[in-house]
Each structure stands twice: as C-alpha cells, then as structure tokens.
Amino acid sequence: MKRKIIILGSTVIAISIIIASIASNDNSTKENTSPDIPLEADVVMPTKVSRPGCDETDTCYIPSTITVAKGEPVVWVNEDVAFHSVTSGIYDSPTGLFDSGHMDPYQSFSFTFDESGNYDYYCTLHPWMKGQVIVE
Ligand SMILES: [Cu+2]
Fold first, then answer.
1. Which of 13, 29, 77, 93 is the most buried (most CB within 10 A)?
2. Is 13 inside a domain boundary?
3. What's the Cα-to-Cα distance from 75 to each of 19, 63, 79, 119, 136, rounded to whole Å?
C-alpha cells in the first residue's frame, strides 16, 4: 500500500515537472534556492541594494557587467532579504526580452541569450539598480 502511494506520488511529480517545462518560456527559468545550498550564480544581488548607494560603486548587481557566449545561460541569484527583479531595458522602459518578476530572497532567475549584443537590465523596484549582459 505504502509503495503504491510512493509510485503514484512520483508519477504526479514527474507529470508536474513535464507540464511546468512545457508551460515555461524556453529561454528563462525561475526557481527557489536554499541559503544553505548556494546555487551557481553568475550575477548576485547582494544585501542592502534596496537602498540607494550601490549605484555609486556599481555593485547593485555583482558583477554589474558580465560577458557570456551566445547560448550560454546567465543565472542571477537574489541574495538580499528584499524583493528584486531582473528586467531587460532601462528603468521605466522595458524591452520585453526578459523579466524575472519579483524575485524572493534566494530565488534564482536564468536567461539564455540567442543573439549577440549588449543587453541593459534593471530592477523594477529600485531605479538605481542597473546591469548589463554582453553577449559575444
Ligand atoms: Cu531591486
């Protein structure tokens, strides 16, 4: 009896994963990570960036400029205690290419760039938070 429940349970999980992967945009993913198991982050949103000041030292996103190869995913992790976003464009002028939405603490967002170019991004909640991805 117990075994049946376990098999049924894992089938439900497998189906949900398949449905979730079909439903989500191919180029972006968002997931929760645990502070105890740090995820491989390419770019980190450090603590206290929800207050102005990080812009003076260019440390709202670390690193604020990252260079990647075409087709290589970029992973952002929110290591702050506040919500942040990773949104393509500049403040009040999103390009619509990618948008993480509000990221909880320790949530990650990843996006894969198919075309080379320079991509500005920002946080919808904090106008001073700016970053750039250079895709070669
Ligand atoms: Cu922010």
1. 77
2. no
3. 22, 12, 12, 15, 17
Determine the distance separating the centroid of ligand 1 and the alpha carbon of 80, expressed in angstroms: 9
Which CATH number is 81's domain given? 2.60.40.420
Which range marks the domain in which residue 52 is found? 27-135
Ligand 1 midpoint to CA 32 (Å): 17
- Report the separation in Å between the CA atom of 50 and the middle of ligand 1, taken as the mean of its atom positions: 5
How confident is the model over 89-128, as pLDDT tens digits? 999 999 999 999 999 999 999 999 999 999 999 999 999 9
Provide the domain count of the chain: 1
Whole-number Å distance, alpha carbon 36 to ligand 1 midpoint, is 22
Judge whether 17 lies within some domain.
no
Q: Are 46 and 61 in contact (CB under 8 A)?
A: no
Strand pairing class (65-68; 43-45):
unpaired
Q: Is residue 129 part of a domain?
A: yes
The Å distance, Cα 67 to ligand 1 centre, comes to 21
